[in-house]
């Protein structure tokens, strides 16, 4: 599984940003902050534009991030996948044949070790490592888990993107429009 060579996964926080992304040459997009009432419309627009959307489940206002929400999204909205910090949501997304991306905040060694246990249980399709500006950690996580890594958080420059990809990341997520090239 891959993003068909797409190394930048542009992430929209606002509807105007999402509309801009629909016009760009990306197959996969990330929907960050949105309200449940807007999501169906956004996904319909994306399908019309032949785009695949990865929804950040934890950031949808009006929807509690749990396995019932994943079931609801799968039945009603049909996104390409979800991103979540919650392993129960990742497990449910995999059962519903959605791309399941486990988001990891790696603040210290304890968080890293705890993440390895979560990954082993949930078996996500991808890991989104935050902050994504740690090439050594990207490499370590990919090797230790044998799971494809996406780098996210604090990706501010083309150099950050290049370093993450060279360290083994499949792609980077970024809400920085300057990097949606």
Principal-axes geometry comes out as globular
Give a short account of the largest sheet: 8 strands, parallel, barrel
- Which oligomerization state do the chains in this entry correspond to? single chain
**Radius of gyration in whole Å, from Cα?**
15 Å
CATH superfamily: Aldolase class I
pLDDT averaged residue by residue? 96
In terms of structural class, how would the helical and strand content be classed?
A: alpha/beta
CATH topology: TIM Barrel
Which sequence of SSEs, written as H and E, runs from N to C? EHEEHEEHEHEHEHEHE
- Main sheet: which strands, in order across? 1-2-4-6-7-8-9-10
Number of helices: 7
Q: Architecture, according to CATH?
A: Alpha-Beta Barrel
Q: What percent of residues are in strands?
A: 15-25%
Question: For the terminal residues, how far apart are their CA atoms?
Answer: 23 Å
Just give the CATH class: Alpha Beta
- Overall helicity: 40-55%
- Given as residue ranges, the uncertain stretches (5+ residues, pLDDT < 50) are none
Q: Return the domain count.
A: 1
Please explain how this structure is put together.
- One of its GO terms (molecular function) is RNA binding.
- With 181 residues, the chain is an alpha/beta fold.
- It has one domain (8-179): TIM Barrel.
- 42% of the residues lie in helices and 23% in strands.
- It is built from seven helices and ten strands.
- α6 (135-145) links the parallel β8 (126-130) and β9 (149-152).
- α3 packs parallel to α4 (87-95).
- The protein starts with 7 loop residues before the first strand and ends in a 7-residue tail after the last strand.
């Amino acid at each position: 599984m891959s993003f068909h060579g797409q190394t930048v996964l542009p992430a929209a926080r606002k509807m105007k940003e999402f509309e801009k992304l629909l016009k760009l040459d990306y197959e996969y997009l990330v929907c960050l902050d949105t309200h449940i009432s807007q999501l169906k419309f956004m996904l319909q627009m994306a399908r019309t534009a032949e785009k695949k959307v990865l929804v950040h489940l934890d950031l949808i206002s009006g929807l509690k991030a749990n396995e019932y929400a994943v079931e609801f999204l799968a039945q009603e909205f049909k996104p390409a996948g979800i991103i979540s910090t919650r392993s129960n949501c990742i497990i449910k997304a995999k059962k519903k044949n959605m791309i399941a991306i486990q988001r990891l905040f790696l603040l210290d060694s304890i968080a890293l070790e705890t993440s390895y246990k979560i990954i082993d249980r949930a078996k996500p399709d991808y890991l989104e490592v935050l902050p994504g500006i740690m090439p050594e950690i990207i490499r370590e996580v990919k090797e230790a888990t044998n799971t494809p890594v996406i780098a996210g958080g604090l990706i501010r420059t083309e150099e950050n993107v290049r370093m993450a990809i060279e360290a083994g990341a499949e792609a980077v997520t970024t809400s920085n429009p300057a990097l949606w090239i």
